[in-house]
Amino acid sequence: MDNPKYKDLKGKVVAITGGGGILCSTLAHAFAGQGAKVCVMDLNMESAQTVADMINKSGNSAMAVKVDVLDRESLEDAKKRITENFGPCDILINGAGGNHPLGTTSDPYLLKEDLKKTAKDFKTFFDLDMEGIQFVFNLNFIGTLLPTQVFSKDMVGRKGCSVLNISSMNAFTPLTKIPAYSGAKAAVSNFTQWLAVHFSKVDIRVNALAPGFFLTDQNRSLLTEPEGGLTARGATIIDQTPMGRFGEPEDLVGTSLWLCSDQSKFVTGIVVPIDGGFSAFSGV
Ligand code: NAD
Predict the structure, then answer these.
(1) Which of 77, 164, 166, 235 has its CA 20 to 30 A from that of 194?
(2) What InterPro entries does the entry give (predicted)?
């Protein structure tokens, strides 16, 4: 065990969707380091297995399960396997999520002349593809709601259980170009509050992180140039971030452990910005 600080997390069963991804694999390691039994769930079984293997190799406890957060049967199957192996889930982290190019406009602003542009890959609001928008809403919103339905039922009547959702900065103020992702994450924040109230009488706390800008494989080419340095969008983000840097996955760890431990036992329904001050800054 790394340096257990949250003693009540020891032995807890923590199921993490998107656990093979960049941010949530870091959370998987952090919870395992507190002595929790971590189930790394991901559509990409190879990455889930790699994370679980690393955790087990370090002397902590993890298992990997292939899961599609949009498929109830696969979630029920995962729950059965986790319960058999580790016991009922105490903490669910809904980390699977992401954007899709088909739900993204080419430019931040619509100009009159844009309507005359014929390039196939140039997209204004009018060209946004319903399939892309649906994909993003499903993955982020339904992909949070459905695993919660499946995993939190067994939390009812047990102490120390909680759900942690992953929202985004976009939920507070939408970023340009990505209306579907912004709307879907706003739905995740709203759902976090709704569910916190709904579950308040059965002792299940529900909170969320709203990460700012973290360099990951999905956004690296949008934010950084191949030969180093920032793209214009990357530079705008850094200019708007008072702390002057992108987030590191480790920046999410302290808040996540706190929100899922008894240290925050009277805290439910909050969405915590982890953004270097981005959401507090007016730009002036
Ligand atoms: P990532 O792509 O590294 O991780 C996402 C993981 O989800 C991947 O491993 C992927 O295989 C998995 N996944 C995708 N579809 C799935 C499905 N249907 N079922 C199960 N698993 C599925 O991305 P990340 O940057 O680590 O993002 C993690 C979460 O944080 C996401 O919800 C993302 O929207 C959110 N977020 C990221 C940032 C950022 O800057 N990276 C900022 C704010 C919020």
Answers:
(1) 77
(2) NAD(P)-bd_dom_sf, Sc_DH/Rdtase_CS, SDR_fam
